[in-house]
Every structure is written in C-alpha cells, then in structure tokens.
Amino acid sequence: MMPGDLPAARDLWSEAEGVDVAEGDSVAELMRYLERNPDLSTVAVDENGRVIGAVLCGHDGRRGFVYHLGVTKACRGRGVARAMMNRCREGLKQQGLVRALLLVAADNVGGQRFWQREGWDEMPYARPMGLDL
Ligand SMILES: CC(C)(COP(=O)(O)OP(=O)(O)OC[C@H]1O[C@@H](n2cnc3c(N)ncnc32)[C@H](O)[C@@H]1OP(=O)(O)O)[C@@H](O)C(=O)NCCC(=O)NCCS
Description:
Elements: H1 6-15, H2 27-36, E1 42-45, E2 51-59, E3 64-71, H3 80-94, E4 100-102, H4 109-117
Parallel strand pairs: 3-4
Antiparallel strand pairs: 1-2, 2-3
Coenzyme A (COA) binds next to strand 3, helix 3 and helix 4.
C-alpha cells in the first residue's frame, strides 16, 4: 500500500460491513501509519488498477497488529483476503515478529469465521480496553 492508495482504501473500508473507520483514520493519519510501518500494509488491485482489497498492518517492535481488512463485495470468495494476509504475515515474520493481534467486532460473524479459517485464535482470557487521549 502506497500513500496514493489511501483514499481508495478508505472508501473501500467505509463501505465494508464490520470495518469501523474511526479516529486515526483520516488520510493524513493513515499516511503517518504507513510511514511508521513501511511495506506491511497491503492492497489488492484488479486488472484495471482499481483497489479491490486493503488491509493495514504494522507492529510496535513486540507484536504485529492488523486493522481494517476489507475486500469489495464483488471480489470476495476468491482468496483475495488470504493473499493479502499471507503477505502481511510474511512481512511481520521477516521483521522478527512472532505474534500478531487484531480486533474483530463482536457482531461480525463473517469476519470472525474468516480469521478462524486463517488460523487466528480467540483470546477469551483477554478483554479489549481503550482510552481517548
Ligand atoms: C472477511 C473478508 C475480508 C474475506 O475476504 P475474501 O477475499 O472473501 O476471503 P478469502 O476468499 O481470502 O477467504 C479465505 C478463507 O476464508 C473463508 N471465508 C471468507 N469469508 C468467510 C465468511 N464470511 N464465513 C466463513 N468463511 C469465510 C473462505 O471460505 C476461505 O476458506 P476456504 O479456502 O477454506 O474456502 C471479506 O468478506 C470482507 O471484506 N468482509 C467485510 C469486512 C470484514 O468483516 N473484515 C474483517 C474485519 S476484522
């Protein structure tokens, strides 16, 4: 994912059910994320160069993090998300990371099934928490 992909990626996420475009998701803020985490976030494009999938991926030096995985409805079920995630996983591994985390909305059953299919474990012993700074 390059900075020029961000407006299209953001539009895709806004239309994807189960993806919460929220604080920190302006194009300027996403650009800062890409600068801090170069070459990990990924887009998929069709033969015309149109963005059909996008995912944010980065790490803090200890854990990898994945946000906002989405594929346009017309292009689902063809392995696009799996291919993007394989690229992200390889990138994190190459940078020495051994574990990654993500949040999936409690009511996003389709998203949860996808992650389980791809080998991600639920963490019933943990509760996500947040703080507005
Ligand atoms: C979830 C999403 C990214 C999957 O994208 P995709 O490109 O269709 O997924 P893939 O084709 O790579 O699927 C990979 C595997 O997951 C399975 N899978 C994908 N979506 C699934 C679903 N909703 N329910 C059950 N299994 C699913 C596929 O069957 C495939 O497994 P298989 O090879 O055994 O058949 C896409 O449906 C989407 O954008 N959903 C809306 C946004 C969302 O929920 N994102 C996750 C936010 S945390």
